[in-house]
Amino acid sequence: MSQRLHADALRRLLQSEHIETLSAPDLIRTFREDDGIAAFRPDGICQIDPRTGDRVLFNTSRARRPHDNRPPATPPSTFSPACAICRGDTTGILDVAALSEGFTFINKNLYPMLYPQETVIPHYLPENASEHIGAQAKPAYGLHFLQWTSSFHDRDWHNMPLADCVVVMQRLAALERRLLDLGPELLPGASGGAAYVSIIKNQGGLVGGSLAHGHQQIAFGSVMPGRVQDNRRFEQEQGEPFSAYLLRENPAEFAVSDYGPAVLLVPYFMRRPYDMMLLLKASNRRHLFELDEDELAAVARGWRDATAAIRRIMPQLGRELAYNVIVHNGPGAGLYFEFLPYTQETGGFEHLGLYVCQGNPAEAAIHLQQVLAQPRGEITR
Ligand SMILES: [Zn+2]
């Protein structure tokens, strides 16, 4: 029997079946009333690197969180990864949807980067903030969710039936919509009503994935991430969203797969081998929830293909499986997704903004096409 979160544990943890039915006060209450989350609450401030505009949040308690996603120090026979999620040792569930087997669900991150603090002095800063953190500090207030792709421990985008991947994407879109709809109520102190839903996936201990059970992270708050700022600036300067630019300018031979409404490609500026982007062809799309049925299905296929290809290629390269997926939504992006396998270390030149890529996009695209053309034994059905 595969390891998974069972239905009885789901019932015990269920606080809401559909995220659409939760009001802003209810949503905030579910976070504040969770003592486990409060114990790991972040510091509640944000600093901005004045050179790049990168935002820095602080949560010293996150360093104490458990990891089960590192290579075993002991031989496999004695290594027993007891998954906290499969045990039901996690936070209350706010959304659940049935899959062909098991279910997908959304709950609260026990180790949040953003938290809905009650103190607002002013804008959630501690009274004596300037003594400790300087006048540059901005308030950081928000909510941090996790979406578990499947209740089955070993299932994720790469090995689930496409129809199930579409359900997972629909629930992610529903969460994104609910948070943006409730934005002004959830973030009363935000200037100009600005609210951002940041969606990422970390898979593998080398790139921040602390749990092996497949999941996405969703952060909601008034802090604009640096890359969102970059996308917005791109559109202001170039007069078109980034996705429209790249669809036109990227060499056709770097395309990996065309799904109709979306295309998976290797960007001509590939920074590490096998970096991929999935771009919506309709560049007026800015959020997942704006996608129609065909577009959502195309995005789900792209996530499935890109992650399946990464999982095949990284062992061939002798690399430990590790990759990030980044959702670029909001102003200036169009809508696109980045798949970033950790195929190469980040060195000093890279920190200087000078990348030395150990591969080239033409060969990467051909290899990715070949890998995706192979039969996929690991897809459940
Ligand atoms: Zn698990």
Integer-rounded radius of gyration? 21 Å
**Which ions, cofactors or small ligands are bound in this entry?**
zinc ion
**Number of separate domains:** 2
Which series of helices and strands comes N to C?
Answer: HHHEEHEEHEEHHEEHHEEEHEEHH
Mean pLDDT, to the nearest integer, reads 89
Q: By helix and strand content, what is the structural category?
A: alpha+beta
Q: Architecture of the largest domain in CATH?
A: 2-Layer Sandwich
CATH fold label of the largest domain: HIT family, subunit A
Please report which band the strand proportion falls in: under 5%, 5-15%, 15-25%, 25-35%, 35-45% or over 45%: 15-25%
C-alpha termini separation: 17 Å
Give the name of the CATH superfamily of the largest domain. Answer: HIT-like
Share of residues in helices:
25-40%
| Biggest sheet character | 10 strands, antiparallel
Task: Report low-confidence residues grouped into runs of 5 or more.
Answer: 72-81, 120-124
Give the beta-strand count.
Answer: 13
The first-level CATH class name of the largest domain: Alpha Beta
User: In DSSP terms, counting alpha (H) and pi (I) runs of 4 or more, how many helices?
Assistant: 12
Strand order of the largest sheet: 3-4-6-8-7-12-13-11-10-9
Given the C-alpha coordinates, what overall shape results?
globular
